[in-house]
Write a structure and sequence with these properties.
- The complex is a heterodimer of chains A (238) and B (346).
- With 238 residues, chain A is α/β, with parallel strands linked by helices.
- Chain A folds into 2 domains: 162 residues, Rossmann fold, CATH 3.40.50; 68 residues, no CATH class.
- Chain A is built from 10 helices and 10 strands.
- In chain A, the strands form 2 sheets. Chain A has a 6-stranded mixed beta sheet, sandwiched between helices. A 4-stranded antiparallel beta sheet of chain A has the order 2-1-4-5, covered by helices on one side.
- Chain A is globular.
- The N and C termini of chain A lie far apart (39 Å).
- Chain B has 346 residues and is mostly helical.
- Chain B has one domain.
- Helices cover 73% and strands 2% of the residues of chain B.
- Chain B has 14 helices and 2 strands, in the order αααααααββααααααα.
- A two-stranded antiparallel ribbon of chain B has the order 1-2.
- The N and C termini of chain B lie far apart (52 Å).
- The chains are: A alpha/beta (238), B mainly alpha (346).
- At the A-B interface, helix 2, helix 3 and helix 6 of A face helix 9 and helix 10 of B.
- The complex binds adenosine-5'-triphosphate and magnesium ion (MG).
Chain lengths: 238, 346
């Protein structure tokens, strides 16, 4: 087994005195898709934000063999760890193209240019809407822009917080197809999803999160067959 | 009042308003990028004007040692922030980068001494002396408070303003300074004499506005500043350092302040504390622009400058009172209409 690309060690995070993540550990190998599923308020978004350095956190985060716990968000982006947050955080009053170019803020001009081509190829819709303000895009287009912007930074690990949130079923299919393609191009993915069925189908490894901690972990296929998971998260109760 | 006086007052008003517009832009920039209502903007104006006047008179301006002190404080704040992730190499780089500018301007002003030189040299040197003050102030006063509320940041800004004014008194004394016009003479247009000085003001303001427009509209670093203003969390996630954006915004604000001071000091004697009232007018313009809109701020500034020129003519003792009183209804209207426009703060 190779060394994990991203390794989160007993991570804790809280809002004031209220703990939201209580000692979570997880590893992502190069080229792997790992998913975290769980009910609303379980702490999934908090976990991703803390791993990104956007929230103060206890424990440690290792990236590519180095301890990045003391680094800020920007420094982690530079190393190749990117997050598409639940709120997307687009630059609403800037054009689609400006949003994407700023996504490539950390890479040199040549890589920014080739990155833009690559994103436009993956998301032809964004190419058509280059000049449109990001704030006026439809929900699905905003999600594509958020992913495209993150890809512009050439991430090695991409963390996606509910990429299918609020999207029509057909577009959800598209998003998961893109996730599968990304993995093929060598990007590791940490996926947080409400749509547990699709997430478990595309992931290699899965964790179930409840009240700030992992209660089940294992190969995604095994969890998909698990009775308890099926009852609670796949809606197959009997 | 005949038409000559009317034209003269209009010219005067637009010239003043142009400078207020610059200051208003600086305030909008600083507020949108760092959420600080930057009261000390006026100090950059006073220090810029005083520095330029001293240089023109062949003296070493007191801002040179002042810059050294600010650099020292900023350096200490920077080193303190590094205490948890200390590395000698990074600390050494901090020392070199922070102290390079003050040492450089000190060497240059000493070498120039009282030798006569073109005004442009003094303009550039003034900018080089005042510009770094912006990032230094940000480093020690505002960067450590990056997560604080707008009110806390405002209080810090008032404190910095008071501190800077006190430093101004300590370094420049109570004496005022004035510089010769940037361009002598003038041209006559119909009944109106347009002075070389006002032409210098118009050209400078126009060039600066175009430069800012190109910077924010067409360059990636400019867009990164805008992005930070629009969505701080989003900017962080693409790797734009909020701290760096803050330093750049403060640097630009200081440059704009210094240039404003250079534009003003040939027309009125500036004192260590003159910046405040000048800055206030830029501030009022920025407020009328909702601390967000550059065009509105510019228009408001021109209106304020014109109102000031006319009130100075009719009742000069009350000129400031009239200007600020005229602004009240505008502020009232804004605050009444403000309900729907608070979407930035989350
Ligand atoms: N900014 C905040 N301040 C205080 N509490 C917060 C904040 N953000 C989240 N929480 C709380 O932390 C807990 C975990 O929230 P989190 O957003 O991580 O959940 P989640 O698993 O992502 O949920 P969802 O599936 O609904 O997105 C929740 O109880 C939530 O109310
Ligand atoms: Mg969430």
């Amino acid at each position: 087994m190779t060394a994990p690309l991203l390794s989160i060690r007993t991570l804790t995070a809280s809002y004031g005195a209220v703990p939201a993540v209580t000692g979570v550990s997880l590893d992502i190998q190069p080229g792997e898709i790992v998913t975290v599923i769980g009910a609303n308020g379980a702490g999934k978004s908090t976990l991703l934000n803390a791993a990104m350095g956007a929230l103060p956190a206890g424990g440690a985060v290792w990236f590519d063999g180095a301890d990045v716990s003391a680094l800020g968000v920007e420094a982690r982006v530079r190393r190749g760890l990117c997050l598409v947050p639940e709120k997307r955080e687009l630059f609403a009053t800037m054009s689609v193209r400006d949003n994407l170019e700023l996504g490539g803020w950390c890479v040199d001009a040549a890589r920014r240019r080739s990155g833009l081509e690559d994103v436009f190829q993956r998301f032809p819709r964004l190419s058509e809407r280059q000049a449109q303000m990001a704030g006026t895009l439809s929900g699905g287009e905003r999600q594509m822009l958020a992913m495209g912007r993150a890809l512009m930074a050439r991430p090695r690990v991409l963390m996606l917080d509910e990429p299918s949130l609020g999207l029509a079923p057909r577009i959800v299919g598209e998003v998961f197809a893109i996730i599968a393609e990304l993995r093929k191009s060598g990007v590791s993915i940490l996926l947080v999803e409400q749509n547990a069925r699709a997430a478990l189908r595309s992931a290699d490894h899965a964790h179930v999160m409840e009240l700030g901690a992992f209660t089940m972990s294992g190969p995604a296929a095994d969890l998909a067959r698990d009775k308890r998971v099926a009852e609670i998260y796949l809606g197959l109760g009997g | 009042m005949d038409s000559t006086i009317l034209l003269f007052l209009l010219q005067d008003g637009v010239t003043n308003g142009a400078v207020y517009a610059l200051l208003g832009f600086a305030l909008v920039l600083v507020f949108t990028v760092t959420r600080v209502i930057f009261i000390p903007q006026g100090e950059f104006v006073a220090f810029g004007g005083l520095t330029y006047a001293a240089l023109r008179a062949g003296k070493i301006p007191s801002t040179v040692p002042l810059l050294m002190i600010l650099a020292g404080v900023a350096l200490l704040a920077g080193l303190w922030a590094r205490r948890r992730t200390w590395s000698n190499a990074a600390a050494a780089k901090d020392v070199a980068l922070t102290l390079a500018m003050p040492v450089l301007v000190w060497l240059i002003t000493r070498a120039l001494g009282s030798a006569s030189r073109p005004a442009a040299v003094d303009v550039l040197l003034t900018i080089a002396i005042v510009a770094p003050m912006g990032p230094y102030l940000y480093r020690f006063a505002f960067e450590p408070l990056a997560e604080a509320s707008v009110l806390t940041l405002f209080i810090a800004a008032v404190a910095v303003h008071l501190g800077m004014t006190a430093m101004g008194l300590a370094f420049f004394g109570a004496e005022g300074l004035r510089a010769p016009p940037l361009i002598d003479g003038g041209i006559t247009v119909g009944p109106l004499l347009v002075t070389g000085q006002s032409i210098a003001v118009y050209v400078t303001v126009l060039v600066l506005i175009i430069a800012l427009w190109l910077l924010f509209g067409y360059t990636l670093p400019g867009k990164a500043l805008r992005a930070t203003a629009i969505n701080r969390a989003g900017a962080n996630l693409v790797g734009i350092s909020t701290a760096m954006a803050g330093r750049v915004a403060y640097g630009l604000a200081a440059i704009i302040g210094a240039i404003s001071g250079i534009l003003i000091v040939p027309t009125t004697t500036l004192y260590y504390d003159s910046g405040f009232l000048v800055g206030m007018k830029g501030f009022v313009a920025a407020i009328v622009g909702g601390l967000a809109s550059y065009p509105l701020t510019g228009l408001a500034a021109i209106a304020i400058g014109t109102a000031e020129a006319f009130s100075a003519f009719h009742a000069s003792a009350y000129k400031e009172v009239i200007v600020f009183a005229l602004v009240m209804p505008v502020l009232l209207l804004r605050s009444l209409g403000a309900g729907q426009s608070h979407d930035e703060e989350e």
